[in-house]
Amino acid sequence: MGRKKILEMRDLSVSFRTSQGSVEAIRGVNLDLYKGETLAIVGESGSGKSVTVKTIMGILANNQKLNSGVIDYKYEQNGQMTSIDLLKISKKEMRRKFNGKRIAMVFQDPMTSLNPTMTIGDQIMEGMFIHYKTPKNEARQKALSLLELVGINNGEERLGQYPHQLSGGMRQRIVIAIALACDPEILICDEPTTALDVTIQAKILELIKAIQEKTGIAVIYITHDLGVVAKVADYVNVMYAGRIIERGTVDDIFYDPKHPYTWGLLSAMPDVNTKSDKLYAIPGNPPNLAHHKQGDPFYVRNEYALNIDKRIDPPVFQVSDTHYVASWLMHNNAPKIEMPPELQERLERMKLEASQYD
Length: 358
Ligand SMILES: Nc1ncnc2c1ncn2[C@@H]1O[C@H](COP(=O)(O)OP(=O)(O)OP(=O)(O)O)[C@@H](O)[C@H]1O
Fold this sequence. Notes:
single chain, alpha/beta, Rossmann fold, 4-stranded antiparallel β-sheet, 13 helices, globular, binds adenosine-5'-triphosphate, nucleotide-binding, ATP-binding
């Protein structure tokens, strides 16, 4: 059976009106999401990951302006495949038909997404009542099986408890159970493990993977941590200053990265052989997009930058069927540049370690 595309984003451009002028936060982003697969969006803080996924969910800030784009969501209704541009529907329609029902989101901090005054049970069942008018008994049974799915014991007792009675890791499991309550087809996870300690983080990642295997849900995972990406993703989109600057399969990105920014992110990734004081950091800071005028915004931080980068933002070059890179270094006339030897060694080592697990 072939892959089934369920979400296609094309040329999404979003800006924000601010006192400093217009911030071009998202600049021509394309994304493709397939049933049962995990797409990761990775990049430093401020690169545009959250705005991209919030736009899919129809969560828009008051000063946000949509400059262009299509977000085509393909779904089944009454036994027939249909599709809709999520950017063309009203907030009301989005809430009634899609948000929380077919497309659900798990945020970074469980405390901000949970209601402290409502029991866990009422919060898990709320969406079922609103979207499907599920009878109370049935909703309760489903809430219990969702608790089991997310690895929480003593379901009966937990349903009557309040968020403050649970640990951070447990709360994030509850948030995932709430997100899954209406059997969504797409689960968007925005750094869902950042607020948790490392062992709990690993457990939540495993949990999301196990749920995906069971339910066939498609996942968009946003993170600044390539270590997380390696664990969860099938496809990776590397984002910088509101653009996808490299995308490919997880192997393309980890074993054959082409963009110097991706090299920087990979070099900055902690691994067992790297002492934290030796960790590489990409020089400089992400650009202020209110001041960006022309050229590649990565120019000033890029030790491999070419003169043309100063003037013209690079187009996207195709490396293979799955691998695309927005960098002038991929142009036929560009000087041939290899990734730093330390990174090359590190990737070789990772490859070897990964093959031992196969
Ligand atoms: N309401 C807003 N008004 C002005 N600028 C905004 C607003 N929301 C986001 N931005 C800007 O848009 C850009 C992208 O922000 P976004 O939150 O998507 O980044 P991110 O990659 O998700 O970062 P993080 O990892 O910190 O969440 C940033 O420059 C941010 O300052």
